[in-house]
């Protein structure tokens, strides 16, 4: 098995690599530390599995999934994330991920997740599955407004909710100010809100920002 481990934190990457080498001694493991390096590695050769940090060097890795899937449609992608909120899980799976694992649980569940998605199944942890099941059981099948946002729109939304200005967001995401402003207008329209203050209040009310 050839595995590409993509994470921008060298210490965390090293820990996961040790687990992989111990549990899958015949696996060939390569590493990357940015979205750009990950795409380059995938263009250079094929892999049987990609373990992908959801955020590398301030970039949302989900935005690269269409390119990744275009390069290797059959290769399963396991997302690693600091977030265990349902919205992130659903976004990752919709974007084409085969599994979703929080970094907190990764050391304990990594091999289980790899075996599941390598066998063609999807993988989320038991606690995440319960969270989604509880949501459905409570009659909340309809989406909250923020769950209708695209990956990039959600990224801009969370940055606005954190208090970042348009110029700061543009610099952080390597976008033009005009593009970020367009995203802001689209986000407000989709969520039925009118101002940044409304976005911040919404985020706080839904536990998306402090």
What does this molecule look like?
The chain has 210 residues and is α/β, with parallel strands linked by helices. The protein folds into 2 domains: 2-135, Rossmann fold (3-Layer(aba) Sandwich), CATH 3.40.50.2300; 145-205, Arc Repressor Mutant, subunit A (Orthogonal Bundle), CATH 1.10.10. 52% of the residues lie in helices and 14% in strands. It has 10 helices and 8 strands. The chain has helices spanning 10-23, 35-44, 65-71, 86-94, 106-118, 126-137, 151-161, 166-173, 177-191, 196-205, and strands at residues 2-6, 28-32, 49-53, 55-56, 59-60, 77-81, 99-102, 123-124. It has a 6-stranded parallel beta sheet, with helices on both faces. Strands 4-5 form a two-stranded antiparallel ribbon. α7 packs across α10 (196-205). The termini are far apart.
């Amino acid at each position: 098995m050839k595995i590409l481990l993509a994470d921008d934190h060298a210490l965390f990457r090293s820990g996961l690599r040790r687990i992989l080498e111990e549990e899958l001694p015949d696996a060939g493991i390569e590493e990357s530390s940015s979205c750009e390096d990950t795409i380059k590695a995938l263009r250079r050769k094929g892999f049987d599995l990609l373990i992908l940090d959801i955020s590398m060097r301030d970039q949302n890795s989900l935005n690269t999934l269409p390119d990744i899937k275009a390069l290797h449609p059959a290769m399963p992608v396991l997302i690693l994330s600091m977030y265990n909120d349902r919205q992130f899980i659903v976004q990752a799976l919709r974007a084409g991920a085969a599994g979703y694992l929080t970094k907190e649980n990764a050391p304990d569940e990594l091999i289980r997740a790899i075996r599941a998605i390598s066998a063609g199944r999807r993988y989320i942890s038991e606690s995440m599955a319960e969270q989604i099941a509880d949501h459905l059981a409570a009659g909340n099948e309809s989406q909250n407004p923020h769950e209708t946002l695209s990956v990039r729109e959600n990224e801009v939304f969370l940055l606005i909710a954190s208090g970042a200005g348009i110029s700061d967001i543009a610099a952080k995401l390597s976008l033009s100010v005009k593009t970020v402003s367009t995203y802001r207008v689209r986000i407000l329209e989709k969520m039925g809100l009118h101002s940044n203050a409304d976005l911040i209040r919404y985020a706080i009310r839904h536990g998306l920002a402090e």
